[in-house]
Amino acid sequence: MIAQQLEWIEERDATCKRETKQNRGGNGYSAFLNNCLMRITIERTKLLREYLR
Predict the structure, then answer these.
(1) How far is CA 31 from its chain centroid?
(2) In this predicted model, what pLDDT tens digit does every residue of 8-42 receive, in sequence order?
(3) Is the Cβ–Cβ distance between 33 and 20 less than 8 Å?
Protein backbone atom coordinates (compact mmCIF):
# COMPACT_ATOMS: atom_id res chain seq x y z
CA MET A 1 0.00 0.00 0.00
CA ILE A 2 2.88 2.40 0.71
CA ALA A 3 4.30 1.98 -2.80
CA GLN A 4 0.86 2.64 -4.30
CA GLN A 5 0.45 5.77 -2.21
CA LEU A 6 3.85 7.07 -3.29
CA GLU A 7 2.90 6.44 -6.92
CA TRP A 8 -0.36 8.28 -6.33
CA ILE A 9 1.50 11.28 -4.89
CA GLU A 10 3.68 11.46 -8.01
CA GLU A 11 0.59 11.23 -10.22
CA ARG A 12 -1.21 13.90 -8.18
CA ASP A 13 1.75 16.28 -8.40
CA ALA A 14 2.07 15.75 -12.16
CA THR A 15 -1.67 16.31 -12.64
CA CYS A 16 -1.58 19.57 -10.70
CA LYS A 17 1.49 20.78 -12.58
CA ARG A 18 -0.37 20.20 -15.85
CA GLU A 19 -3.53 21.86 -14.57
CA THR A 20 -1.68 24.97 -13.40
CA LYS A 21 0.85 25.20 -16.23
CA GLN A 22 -0.74 28.31 -17.70
CA ASN A 23 -0.43 30.17 -14.39
CA ARG A 24 3.29 29.56 -13.79
CA GLY A 25 5.12 32.74 -13.14
CA GLY A 26 1.93 34.56 -12.20
CA ASN A 27 0.99 35.98 -8.84
CA GLY A 28 -1.63 33.31 -8.18
CA TYR A 29 0.37 30.26 -9.20
CA SER A 30 0.99 29.00 -5.67
CA ALA A 31 -2.67 29.38 -4.77
CA PHE A 32 -3.80 27.53 -7.92
CA LEU A 33 -1.30 24.74 -7.30
CA ASN A 34 -2.21 24.39 -3.62
CA ASN A 35 -5.93 24.34 -4.43
CA CYS A 36 -5.36 21.56 -6.94
CA LEU A 37 -3.27 19.53 -4.50
CA MET A 38 -5.88 19.96 -1.80
CA ARG A 39 -8.80 19.06 -4.07
CA ILE A 40 -7.19 15.86 -5.34
CA THR A 41 -5.98 14.89 -1.85
CA ILE A 42 -9.50 15.29 -0.45
CA GLU A 43 -10.81 13.06 -3.23
CA ARG A 44 -8.18 10.43 -2.40
CA THR A 45 -8.97 10.63 1.32
CA LYS A 46 -12.64 9.97 0.61
CA LEU A 47 -11.74 7.02 -1.59
CA LEU A 48 -9.47 5.50 1.05
CA ARG A 49 -12.06 5.98 3.79
CA GLU A 50 -14.63 4.14 1.69
CA TYR A 51 -12.10 1.39 1.01
CA LEU A 52 -11.46 0.90 4.72
CA ARG A 53 -15.14 0.55 5.63
Answers:
(1) 13
(2) 999 999 999 999 999 898 889 999 999 999 999 99
(3) yes
